[in-house]
Amino acid sequence: MKKSTVAAESDDARDASLRVSKRVRDSLKAAAAVMGRPLYDVTNEAISDYLSGLKLGDPLAAIRRAGRARK
């Protein structure tokens, strides 16, 4: 009984994810059509804007620190 409940919950989460993805994809297609630009340009800009808004640490900082410590 538990297996079916867990499977149903993961299917619900996956369905919700697909609905959101489809909505985003449709929005990007509409924006590209309105602007008269290729979809990939609009998509790349949207991805770049999203990534620039994230507060990510410097992923290479730990590598640089480790390199300085060895010298």
UniProtKB/TrEMBL annotation:
It comes from the Bacteria. It comes from Dokdonella fugitiva. This is Uncharacterized protein.
